[in-house]
Amino acid sequence: MDSCVAHNCSSPISGTTPVVFTQLIQTLIAAQCSLGKIEDYPPDRTWEIMKNVEESFDFIIVGGGSAGSVLAARLSEQSDWKVLLIEAGTYPSAISSVPSQYNELWGSKEDYRYQHEPQRDFCLGMVNKRCLWSGGKVLGGGSTINGMIYIYGNKRDFDNWEAEGNEGWGYEDVLPYFKKSNNYPRETIDKYGDKYLGRDGPLSVRLFNYSSSIFHEVVIKAAEEKGIPRVDIFNTDQYIGFGKLHMTADKGRRVSAATAYLSPIKNRKNLYVMTSTRADEILIKDNRATGVRVLVNNGSTIELKASKEVILSAGAIGSPKLLMLSGIGPKEDLEKFKIQCKADLPVGKYLKDHVVWHGIFLEFVNQSHARNNLFDSQDDAYQYLTRNEGALTGLDELDFSGFINVQDPSSIYPDIQFLHAYVSQDDNSTLARTLDRFGLSPETRDSIVNSTKKNDIFFMSPFLLRPKSIGEVKLRSKSPADSVRLFQRHLTDKSDIETLLKSVDFVKRLLDTEAFKNFGVKIRNITIPGCDKFEFDSSGYWECFIRHTAFSGFHSVGTVRMGTPENPKTVVDFKLKVLGIDQLRVIDASIMPEVTSGNINAPTMMIAEKGADLIKEFWIKTKKF
Predict the structure, then answer these.
(1) Among 1-10, 141-150, 184-193, where is mean pLDDT lowest?
(2) Across all residues in the chain, what is the average pLDDT?
(3) Any idea what the Cα angle at residue 588 is, between residues 583 and 470, rounded to 5°?
(4) Which is nearest to 445 in space by CA: 432, 460, 458?
(5) Apex 62 CA angle, 58 and 68, nearest 5
(6) The pTM is what?
(7) Catalytic residue among 116, 354, 358, 555
(8) CB 439 within 8 A of CB 127
(9) How much is the pLDDT for 2?
(10) How far is CA 468 from the centre of its chain?
């Protein structure tokens, strides 16, 4: 910090002005330096570990993301347990602390930036017809680069998990772990009670507190006119409706799993952290996991021993990859790469993910919006650095959402989530940059941008919450350095495209409301290359639009599916143990039997909280695996 503020400014001006000006500059520099400091996290102990490589750890956790950070904190609460956390990425950057800048991290060194394999009927408007998939390659994982939306999911999601035979994973069982993880402000608890909300957890959850327009209120009122209720807080017993969202942030800063769980224990002696370290193979002897072979950042390969368990928390892409490289996976696939099969399990086979469509572009005349000028961004940065306030503390119109069932409006189990975004007619460059980050081809991007220059645009983006289409993760080779082959297979099940088309019908009904009519809202005709043979607003037009511009929600699950041993889809049991291999668990989003109805960061941390208790219960009570 001293190096950041040790700037001397000389000036011939006399009086107090130079002093005040210098203090201002130093304040701004100090504020910037306070973002994303490495010293806020546990130190990297790689060299210490390499000097004592023969020593073993009680637990080795592979992956320092949303799940791994939770596990490292909870397991190291046992002072006599030696816990190692291995992360392929490094420490969070300064910009990751700034909420509004989250999509600036996509494609950065903190992002794996996978590419889907080309698909015949999806991602047609993307570069090379391949969608991009972002995943956190950084301490804190996805929670460090995501949109910070914190939502449990619907009660029925978890009750369905339990109905499949996963004992202890029903909603009433997992709710205490959500509450254990989070802390809501006192005023929120006072207003809504603590039946559903936590007050003492490490993860700060706050209401999104900034929006540049009033259009979120317009949408909520329009939905109310159509009988869709306003929701004050989604993480209670009311889920269908439109309302404001909560985010993992505090005092204008992102709160990632690493910030919440690892920073407070950064000096804990029994916690060892290795960053910039790639796990290449789980060491297995006599059907028992004994450690991990890793590649450290100086190019050396070492083997690390685990006396109790190896735990994979590398996510729905990384965990199945490491399992398959280690001989745990579909035997036929492994044999193609001459990998000895140690457990023939359907690893990678049941990939599910939310489909996100850029959505229905709503055109309106915004009489109150002040046009952008050259100094707006500088003013926003000044306000943020000096007071942690203003536009940079939130996600603008992404601060509210809607959950509805378009197939059965009477159902309390949603199949569509709406997110929203606003683009003023004089800020098309922002829209262009955003579309680039999603991987749209220049032709498709320019066509969309050119279609939105006449008026301000507000678009409603449907998330397909309960997709029927099933994807797959496969190895590209037996080399750990090679990325996996990611087959999303979105919209291959006809019902998925039907549900998304019904979301268009829902938005059309909102056009008849007084709330929308007062703003002159109408659907903007967006020209999509490849869709010009369809008449605007026909079902063919909308389906073509979806197939060209929809993409992954980065909410991948199911590739190391939890279930009963007799279920042919199962890789781990309800205690998250890998079938057929002792002392090996997988604890992350990959174990979800189905994707939850909403953003998956909250349920992923819940899984880790419960997983930590399962481990503690076993080892403290039985002292054996």
Answers:
(1) 1-10
(2) 90
(3) 115
(4) 432
(5) 90
(6) 0.94
(7) 555
(8) yes
(9) 41
(10) 21
